[in-house]
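Researcher: Here's a chain I'd like modeled. Treat it as a single chain, no partners, no ligands.
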Amino acid sequence: MHGLFNQIRLNLITIENAEHILFTPYIMNKLKKNNVSEEILSLVHEGTELEDLKSLNILSDEELSRLINETERLLKNYHDIEFNDKIYNNFVIDKDSTSNN
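Model: Modeled as a single isolated chain. Structure tokens:
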């Protein structure tokens, strides 16, 4: 999430791509079912609203920096946690989208 917010701020990926990766109601529901903290759910929810903010011309570097800072604050709470399980259980790559046709 931190990386997605930062990549959007740096114009390395589009908001639409970030939505395909993480910022969707579907992901929010999955996280909620797995008892993910409300703080994390809130940030994912804010990620789902980025396109709306952009379309209203109110998405700013300051807002993206706030989201980045908030994710950094949360990451500090998880400093001692190790992730031993695979995160992806279904990862799809569309080969046609990577071709130069």
